[in-house]
């Protein structure tokens, strides 16, 4: 049996042994990954800011033209008329151009759109963006419809891959080191708590700040406070697992979506229904493709 003194000496020797954590022994070559702090999602300062996809860059040209000309009608906005011609020459279809124009014309007065999450029959998950402010009065007004279709207001976002994008342009009020533009933008993204950034257009100084949908309002305020002019915000939701509906379920869900669509409060819908079962809503008739063609 060991004496207390012997056990104490052995304990002292173990203190001098290398540990498996750098927290206790900085010289130790052994690294345990579970003790390593999780790396941030931001790009390292030494690497360039990634360029946004082509479709995103072309959409920016249309939105910027509407912003500069203050009109979504190419007959009244020479900037938009020229932009439509340029983006279609670069590969954007006329239908896609129409959708971008319609969406931006409808949303540019309300940059931050609130979300309403709904579960229907406990297997259909629906996320809606709202034109109006989400209030108790709106939920109360929708309750009879919700009860009729066995739907409820519950958190369903964890069933989707999600992100939010803030498209902003550098203004005269933006404090940037233009000799190190990408580094300055990256530092701004970190300060604004954005999860990532993309360069949209070097000529116009357009940048995409990426964040979690639940943090859009916070990041939006921070980006604006930095002096950027926010042009557009957008949510992206993609179901982690899609479901198929039988004919009865599909017709019932279609009726539910149609009744929701008739309410002025709702803007866009995202769900987990398989693509062939998704109901397509008609967007706001700000301008038609025919009108764009005639204006060119």
TrEMBL record:
Alphabetical list of SUPFAM superfamilies matching this protein: YebC-like
CC per GO annotation: mitochondrion
Record protein name field: TACO1/YebC-like second and third domain-containing protein
Pfam family, one: Transcrip_reg
Sequence segments annotated as region (Disordered): 1-27
Biased amino acid composition, Basic and acidic residues: 7-17
Organism in which the protein naturally occurs: Bactrocera dorsalis
Residue ranges of domain TACO1/YebC-like second and third in the record: 175-273
């Amino acid at each position: 049996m060991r004496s207390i003194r012997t056990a104490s000496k052995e304990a002292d020797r173990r203190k001098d042994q290398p540990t498996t954590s750098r927290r206790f022994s900085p010289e130790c070559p052994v690294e345990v990954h579970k003790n390593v702090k999780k790396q941030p999602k931001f790009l390292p300062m030494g690497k360039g800011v990634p360029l946004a996809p082509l479709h995103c860059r072309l959409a920016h040209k249309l939105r910027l033209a509407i912003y500069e000309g203050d009109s979504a009608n190419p007959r009244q906005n020479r900037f938009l008329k020229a932009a439509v011609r340029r983006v279609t020459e670069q590969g954007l279809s006329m239908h896609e151009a129409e959708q971008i124009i319609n969406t931006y014309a409808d949303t540019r007065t309300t940059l931050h759109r609130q979300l309403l999450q709904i579960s229907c029959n406990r297997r259909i998950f629906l996320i809606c963006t709202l034109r109006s402010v989400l209030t108790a009065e709106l939920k109360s007004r929708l309750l009879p419809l919700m009860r009729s279709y066995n739907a409820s207001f519950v958190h369903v976002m964890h069933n989707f891959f999600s992100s939010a994008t803030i498209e902003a342009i550098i203004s005269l009020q933006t404090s940037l080191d233009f000799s190190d533009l990408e580094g300055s933008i990256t530092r701004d993204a970190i300060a604004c708590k954005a999860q990532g950034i993309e360069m949209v257009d070097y000529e116009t100084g357009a940048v995409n700040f990426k964040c979690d949908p639940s943090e859009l309002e916070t990041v939006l305020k921070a980006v604006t406070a930095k002096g950027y002019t926010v042009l557009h915000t957008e949510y992206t939701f993609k179901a982690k697992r899609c479901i198929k509906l039988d004919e009865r379920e599909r017709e019932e869900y279609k009726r539910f979506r149609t009744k929701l669509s008739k309410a002025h409060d709702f803007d866009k819908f995202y769900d987990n229904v398989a693509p062939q079962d998704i109901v397509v809503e008609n967007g706001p008739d700000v301008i038609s493709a025919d009108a764009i063609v005639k204006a060119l």
